[in-house]
Design goal:
This protein is of the alpha+beta class. The chain has 4 helices and 8 strands; from the N terminus they run βαααββββββαβ. It has helices spanning 62-87, 93-98, 109-127, 188-201; strands spanning 55-58, 131-135, 138-144, 150-156, 160-165, 170-174, 179-181, 205-208.
Length: 217
């Protein structure tokens, strides 16, 4: 009839069914995990990716830094000898050669020794410029040319087609078919492991070479 609203009262059979607890089975036992279904185990592998802004630097090996360190040592010995002779007896041969001989030289022995030390420190800093820096957005390789001129190369992860590595060296295969060998570092194994994890997270092919002379038995 017009103007009359019909209200339907739900019967007991129309009530919503009881929902069991999502954390347990109806019989009180623990809920079956999805990893136990059909006897399979689900494995979740977390890939590594450097946080944005973070960088890891791998410096040059000791063999590349040793000549500059020896140079610094010789410069320090030179300074020590000059100061020891100046404070020593005036009748010695070294006193006449260093102290008295400075009168006819454009630079004194003391000034010359500090110049040599400054040059030695410069070689140490220059040697430290070699190495590899792993960044969030790619790789940076630092070389020293034959004349001591620094050279820096950078590659984004998207430019890498494949990474060939072992426990001593790393070589990059670029998307255009070119190959680039990274400079030697002090911790080659650690750098190789880091690059291998990053390549796995970015779907970059990795080829790990076995040392010559070793075979699987």
């Amino acid at each position: 009839m017009n103007g009359v609203q019909t209200v339907t009262t739900p019967t007991p059979n129309d009530e919503a069914p009881h929902l069991p607890d999502a954390g347990a089975e109806e019989d009180g036992s623990e809920r079956i995990s999805v990893t136990d279904v059909n006897g399979t185990v689900a494995r979740f592998e977390m890939a590594y990716s450097p946080p944005e802004g973070e960088k890891t630097k791998f410096g040059p090996p000791l063999s590349q830094r040793l000549p500059s360190l020896v140079f610094v040592g010789l410069a320090l010995v030179m300074i020590a000898v000059v100061f020891a002779v100046q404070a020593g007896p005036s009748g010695s041969y070294l006193f006449r050669f260093i102290v008295e001989g400075d009168k006819g030289r454009p630079f004194s022995a003391q000034t010359l020794s500090f110049i040599v030390l400054a040059c030695a420190i410069g070689t140490v800093l220059r040697a430290q410029m070699r190495g590899v820096i792993v960044r969030f957005d790619g790789l940076e390789a630092r070389y020293l040319l034959a004349a001591g001129i620094p050279k820096i190369r950078r590659w984004a992860w998207t430019q890498l087609e494949r990474v060939v590595l072992d426990d001593t060296q790393v070589m990059l295969e670029l998307w255009n078919g070119q190959y680039e060998r990274l400079p030697q570092v002090a911790e080659p194994k650690k750098m190789s492991e880091l690059l291998e994890r990053i390549c796995a997270s970015r779907k970059i092919r990795v080829t790990r070479l076995k040392p010559v002379g070793k075979s699987n038995r």
